[in-house]
Amino acid sequence: QQQVKQSPQSLIVQKGGISIINCAYENTAFDYFPWYQQFPGKGPALLIAIRPDVSEKKEGRFTISFNKSAKQFSLHIMDSQPGDSATYFCAAEGGATNKLIFGTGTLLAVQP
Amino acid sequence: NAGVMQNPRHLVRRRGQEARLRCSPVKGHSHVYWYRQLPEEGLKFMVYLQKENIIDESGMPKERFSAEFPKEGPSILRIQQVVRGDSAAYFCASSKSGTGSTGELFFGEGSRLTVL
Q1: In terms of CA atoms, which chain A residue is nearest residue B43?
Q2: If both were cysteines, with which of A9, A78, B2, B60 could A61 make a disulfide (CB 3.0 to 4.6 Å apart)?
Q3: Which chain B residues are within 8 Å of A44, Cβ to Cβ?
């Protein structure tokens, strides 16, 4: 119930391509879904977040797509760049859960 | 503006010793969270504290681990009698008024504990 399942574990994309990372959850009380980006040796940093009242949110090259009925959400990185190479974590929070529950992370490598 | 400050950044301990990890939240933030990150694993919640209070410690191992966030000074994560399995990166995060609907979570750069 408290888990957030993330896939794939790793992803290799060519420069200019689209990176897609998927997450799924079980707890229907979750109402906040952020994505965090982490570079090696650094702490995670908030990238973009969505609430279930919208199905999509776009910020620059980053888009979250949200499917409430399927309990799934995904991160799309358009025109992927080598500087996007990092680990990406999805997360969820809401209801009686007073903290962010993180997925297991996706290591993205964008090849030049 | 200083973000979340964690120290030490790297800590080496022998089995059976104690590890103390410190976290100074963003100025004005009164909510602190500790997460543990193991290699190739996600961030696992450990404990959520507000000033002088433990709000949720459901992710903390029952033994050897403790956390505090005193009225004055940094939050401390304490691991007694460390074992090799405690080797991990420990991240502290702070928020002005809780996560999600009320505030973004800011992470420090982590304290990497190695137990020999």
Answers
A1: A102
A2: A78
A3: 43, 91, 107
